[in-house]
Structure formats: structure tokens, C-alpha cells
Design goal:
Layout (H helix, E strand, L loop, with lengths): L1 H16 L30 H11 E3 L6 E3 H14 L7 H10 L4 E2 L2 E3 L1 E3 H10 L6
Antiparallel strand pairs: 1-5, 2-4, 3-4
Length: 132
């Protein structure tokens, strides 16, 4: 099984950095967590609720502006958010489907009308403007 070889390689790496004579202890869960690969990438339903929570918490809708954000940076932020919330990150296909379903136009790797709140705040801070 591929997961066994990953665990074995991780243990080898840990052993390599341990002090001589030390035995590392690593807890390996009996039932590994659900992996994104086990959910078909064309099934965005699995991530819809998390996507909505993430978007409300971490994004700003900018439909009246020419703002856009790279799909890659949105996906990375969503993945980090999902992991922080004990959820499974979505694959890019499902994430793009969720963006389009939410009404954001995707063009040349960019999502139009949505930006990360932290990025917008940084830009506005440099311009000495605040958002509510």
C-alpha cells in the first residue's frame, strides 16, 4: 500500500535525525483520514459547505471592481483553511467548479470578483484605506 511506504519513509527520516540509541515513537492512526483523492474531483458537493464558510470568512466579493485573484492562491488559502478546520482540501477541478458555481468567472488562471481579505487589506493599508 502506498500509504505504508510513505509512513515507512517518514519513520526512516525521523530515525536519521534522532540521537544515537534513541527510538522514535510515532502514532500511526488505524483508520487514516479521508483523502481528497478518494472523492471524485468532479463532485464539488463534498466541499460546498466548507467552500461557503471559507469564502465568508476569508474573502471579499469585489464584483463592482476590476479585482481578481489567482485561482492557485485562492486554492492554497482554501486548503490551508480546510486543514486548520480538520477538513479535506479540494482538488483544483472541484475548487474551480465551486468558484464558477458561485458565479465567479475564471479566465487565464484568475477568478474575477473575489479576492482574499488579507490581500485586499494589505493593499488598502498601503493606501491608508480600511474596509468594513
Amino acid at each position: 500500500m502506498e500509504q505504508d511506504s510513505v509512513v515507512e519513509r517518514a519513520l526512516e527520516a525521523i530515525r536519521a535525525i534522532c540521537r544515537p540509541g534513541e527510538t522514535p515513537t510515532v502514532a500511526v492512526p488505524e483508520n487514516p483520514p479521508l483523502e481528497a483523492a478518494s472523492i471524485p474531483p468532479d463532485a464539488p458537493d463534498a466541499w460546498r459547505e466548507d467552500f461557503i464558510r471559507w469564502a465568508l470568512e476569508r474573502c471579499v466579493l469585489r464584483e463592482d471592481y476590476e479585482d481578481s485573484q489567482s485561482v492557485g492562491s485562492l486554492l492554497i488559502d482554501f486548503a490551508e483553511w480546510a486543514i486548520d478546520h480538520d477538513a479535506v482540501p479540494a482538488p483544483r477541478d472541484a475548487f474551480e467548479a465551486l468558484l464558477e458555481e458561485a458565479g465567479f468567472r475564471l479566465k487565464d488562471g484568475m477568478a474575477m470578483g473575489i479576492v482574499l481579505k488579507a490581500d485586499l487589506e494589505a493593499v488598502l493599508l498601503s493606501q491608508k484605506v480600511t474596509i468594513q
